[in-house]
């Protein structure tokens, strides 16, 4: 029985970790390219959840259909936010601190807006898969989680291909490594930063739709939890390294689920943060930082 519980926890951890990794990946693209600390990223994820809710209520279609719509819509929102906020922030003496304070304010405003429009009650999506659960090698897994894992894996592959195979993706990686050097060779850093901002916001909302599929409920105050998870994941994987963030998310998700099996419920949330403190102490660059820099 214990072996089955461990196997179930490992599978659940990989599924949740992939989603956590996507949150961290979109967050680290923004930080790595612009050194912007987006403290409102969790609210973007929750906004994606509510976008899925509105789509299902208005159209009656399955929430999977809203995934590309959410990405494109929030990509545009991200571009507008960049135009409205970032030029002045990037000219400040300390862009990191200025962005942290500014986006903390954006986080509060976004949370208040979600509370105003959707009230404080938690919501969930009214949808179903057939069958609702799948038996896999003696394990019982909700179909929604397996679908979310499959979609997340496709997004991770597509994002990896974009970053390593396309000119824009290579430029983003170069900006993460050395923002000043790429301007010497003629790269328009403002267009590239706008692309990174739009990509981060769009991917965050896209991940929010997947989270709405997997998590039983969400509310307007859930954003802070996902913001904290995102920062933990990018520290584990290495600041500014998108692939490391995905691996860090899987490590965090597996640790969280195994802790639920072996530890009392009140102690299980602590394990991920113990790993975080240990990583910062023993390997400040993150578990995958050095490999990514090479």
Quick description:
This protein is an all-alpha fold and 294 residues long. It has helices spanning 2-34, 41-59, 66-90, 95-118, 143-165, 167-177, 179-184, 189-214, 223-237, 242-262, 270-282, 289-293; strands spanning 133-136, 139-142. It has a two-stranded antiparallel ribbon.
The H-and-E topology, N to C, reads as HHHHEEHHHHHHHH
Oligomer: single chain
Mean pLDDT: 85
Which percent range fits the helix content?
A: over 70%
Query: Which term fits the overall shape?
Result: globular
Largest sheet: 2 strands, antiparallel
Q: What's the arrangement of strands in the largest beta sheet?
A: 1-2
Tally of individual helices: 12
Low-confidence stretches: none
Give structural notes.
The protein is mostly helical and 294 residues long. It has one domain (2-222). The chain is built from twelve helices and two strands, in the order ααααββαααααααα. It has helices spanning 2-34, 41-59, 66-90, 95-118, 143-165, 167-177, 179-184, 189-214, 223-237, 242-262, 270-282, 289-293; strands spanning 133-136, 139-142. The protein has a two-stranded antiparallel sheet. α3 (66-90) crosses α8 (189-214) and α6 crosses α8. The longest helix has 33 residues, at 2-34. The protein is globular and about 55 Å long. The relative contact order is 0.21. The model has no long low-confidence stretch (mean pLDDT 85).
């Amino acid at each position: 029985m214990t072996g089955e519980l461990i196997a179930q926890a490992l599978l659940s951890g990989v599924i949740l970790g992939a989603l956590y990794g996507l949150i961290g990946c979109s967050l680290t693209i923004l930080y790595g390219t612009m050194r912007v600390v987006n403290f409102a990223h969790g609210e973007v994820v929750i906004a994606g959840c509510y976008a899925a809710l509105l789509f299902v209520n208005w159209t009656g279609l399955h929430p999977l259909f809203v995934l590309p719509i959410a990405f494109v819509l929030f990509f545009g929102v991200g571009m507008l936010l960049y135009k409205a906020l970032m030029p002045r922030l990037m000219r400040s003496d300390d862009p990191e601190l200025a962005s942290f304070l500014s986006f903390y304010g954006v986080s509060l405003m976004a949370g208040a807006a979600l509370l105003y429009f959707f009230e404080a009650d938690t919501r969930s999506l009214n949808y179903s898969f057939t069958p609702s659960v799948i038996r896999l090698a003696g394990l019982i897994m909700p179909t929604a989680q397996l679908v979310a894992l499959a979609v997340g894996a496709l997004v991770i592959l597509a994002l990896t291909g974009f970053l390593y195979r396309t000119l824009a993706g290579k430029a983003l990686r170069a900006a993460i490594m050395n923002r000043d050097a790429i301007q010497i060779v003629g790269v328009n850093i403002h267009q590239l930063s706008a692309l990174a901002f739009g990509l981060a916001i769009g991917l965050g909302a896209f991940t929010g739709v997947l989270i709405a599929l997997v998590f039983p409920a969400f509310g307007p105050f859930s954003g802070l939890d996902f913001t904290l998870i995102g920062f933990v994941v990018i520290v584990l994987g290495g600041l500014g390294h998108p692939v490391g963030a995905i691996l860090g998310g899987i490590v965090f998700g597996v640790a969280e689920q195994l802790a639920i099996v072996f530890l009392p419920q009140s102690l299980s949330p602590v394990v991920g943060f113990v790993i975080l403190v240990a990583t910062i102490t023993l390997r400040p660059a993150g578990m995958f930082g050095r490999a990514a820099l090479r």
